[in-house]
Amino acid sequence: MPQGRSGAAEVSRKRGAEPAALPQQVPERKRACWGILTSQGSWADRSPLHEAASQGRLLVLHTLLAQGYHANIVTINQVTPLHEACLSGHVACVKVLISAGANVNAATIDGVTPLYNCCASGSLGCMELLLQNGAHTHTAHTHFPSALHEACKRGHGQCLDCLNRHAACSKILLHRGASVNIGSGGDSPLHAAVRQDSADLVSVLLDYGADVNLRDSNNLRPIELALPGGKSQQLLLAFEVSPRTLCQLCRLQIRNLIGRSRLKQLALLPLPPLLTHYLEHS
After folding, report:
1. Does residue 205 sit in the same domain as residue 278?
2. Does residue 66 contact residue 99 with C-beta atoms inside 8 Å?
3. pTM of the full predicted structure?
4. Three-class SS of residue 201?
C-alpha cells in the first residue's frame, strides 16, 4: 500500500475526471436507470454528489439524493461523498449523507476512512458526528493509515487554532478507545507527535499507554527522533526514568477490560464522578 502521502487531498481524491452530467432534464425512465447505476456497489469517477459534498453545496446535495443518487456511490478508488465532505470539513453535508445511509466506516483502496479525513482537516464537528454514528476509532491492519496517527502527524499546525483542533482530535479519539500504538506502517502516533515536537500530544499519548520502546521502519524509538533540547525530548527522558504509578496502570487495565466499544458508557456506571472522569480522561 502507498505510504506517507504529503497532503490530505491526495489520500482520498482522484482529480482530473469530469463529473457526470446532472440528470435534471433526463426523462423519468432514464432517471430511474441512473438511480440503479449509481447504487451501492457501482462506481462513477467524481460524480456530482462527490463534487457537492466536497464544495459544501447542501441544497445541491439534497437535490441529487432526491433524484436517486446513492449516498455510498464510490469512485474507482473507492472514495465516497462522505470522504469528501469530511476532508473539506462540511458538517451539514456530513449530517445529510449519514441520514441518507452513508457508510461511516467506508475505506478507500488505501485504507483511508472518513474519520481519517476529519483528522487530516482538523474538523471536530465532522468527527463527533461520525463517532456518534458508529465510526471505528481503530483499524485492524497496521499497514493502513490510522486516524490517530494522522491527527498527531498534523498536530503542529502553522497557527494555534490549527494546533488546538488537531490536538483535540487526538484526545477525542483516545477517549473513545483508539489504539494508542497503531499508526501507519511501522510509525506509531508517538513517533508522529515527537517529530512535530508537540509536547501536549506526547503527554496525552503517554497518559493513554503509548509504548516508548516501539521502533519505526528505520528502527528508531520515539526519543531518538526528538528535537535535542525540545519539550518532547524532556518529557520522554523524564518518563523513561519514572515508571508508571500503580494508579496509572490500574486505569489503563480497567479501560482495556471495559473494551473500546463500551468506553462511551463509562458515565453510566455507579461510580463517583471523580473516578469516572479519571477513567475517561476527557
Report:
1. no
2. no
3. 0.56
4. helix
Distance of CA 137 to the CA centre of its chain: 7
Return the CATH number at 128.
1.25.40.20
**Whats the size of the chain, residue-wise?**
282
Scanning the structure block, which residue is given the C-alpha cell 486505569? 251
Q: Is the CA virtual torsion 272, 260, 11, 42 positive or negative?
A: negative
In tens digits, the chain (282 residues) has pLDDT values of: 333 333 444 444 433 334 444 444 444 433 433 333 344 434 457 899 999 999 999 999 999 999 999 999 999 999 999 999 999 999 999 999 999 999 999 999 988 999 889 888 888 889 889 988 988 876 655 566 677 777 777 763 333 344 456 667 777 777 666 777 777 667 888 888 888 888 888 888 887 888 888 888 889 999 999 989 888 899 899 888 887 777 777 877 777 777 766 776 777 778 788 777 777 764
Residue 132 domain-assigned? yes
Contacts of 32 (CB under 8 A, 6+ apart): 68
